[in-house]
Amino acid sequence: MSSLSLSAQGLTAAPPPVASLGEIITAKFPLRFEAPYSTVLQALQAAGFDPKQARVLCDRSAFIRATHALAAGRLVRNVEETADRLRFQFTREWLDAQANRLAYDFEAVVTLDKSTGRISCPDAQLEALAMQEASRQVGVRRIADVRRLLARLIDANGDNFPFADGVRFVPVQYVGFLDRLEQLVRGLGGELQRVVVPAGSHITTTTIEKVIVDGVCEAIDNYEAAIREVNENYGKLTSRAIKTAYQRVQAAYDLIWRYKNTLGAHATILEDQVAYVAAELKRAEEREQKAAPGLALFVS
Fold first, then answer.
1. What is the CATH number of domain 19-54+142-200?
2. Which residue among 51, 83, 96, 243 sits deepest, i.e. has the most Cβ atoms within 10 Å of its Cβ?
3. Each residue of 30-51: pLDDT tens digit?
4. Which CATH class is domain 59-138?
């Protein structure tokens, strides 16, 4: 029995639901967006996601952001980075009205000890400012942080393909989690714009097929690079190295096989390549087994 809707002419049958190829999505946030880290954690939990998806900002990232935030009226330049420390030079920039030119005065070098997270500087005032700003940066997330978070969540919940800059196409079989994603974006003060792509139109079908083909090019490049590595080092690679190549080929194979009707011959070619790398993996494991009896095999 069809559902009914009320129109000016009375009760009429509601149109049947439109078959969908998927949804095109993009997240919009206010200009100069920042959100407290605690708010991000709460929004993730409220939307049913693991709060651990919001990664803690490391000391190095917080320090770099702090130095950039203190750059008003200054030049801030990275002068050294080693495994142990990171150093930025602060140089004051000012207008010498008498000489009618910009002038520059060295202020100090601010240093981050990577092992302890301690910030130090010969200029006590600048040191205090850097420490205060680094502490603030740890507690906030910017638009770039949130976009990376959303990308991880989208990738973890199924296939998706770039449609345009900042815009993704999510095939219909994976759109179920988008309601939760939309709730998360709203909880952060943004908007998840969603456009349903209807099936049945030659134009939309052709467009989405092209999006999928373009989107798997990276996977194809990855597997071809893995095959080249195996070929160029035939008989020399360890089973661990070949296992890595095998996993890359298998991932590409799984992705492309899911869209074999769109991608045509790529699916068949990959099936042969997976078998080839699997055989190479087995041979490498056998070599290592002979060289070190009792060695546990990886994956055959």
1. 3.30.70
2. 243
3. 988 999 999 999 999 999 999 9
4. alpha beta
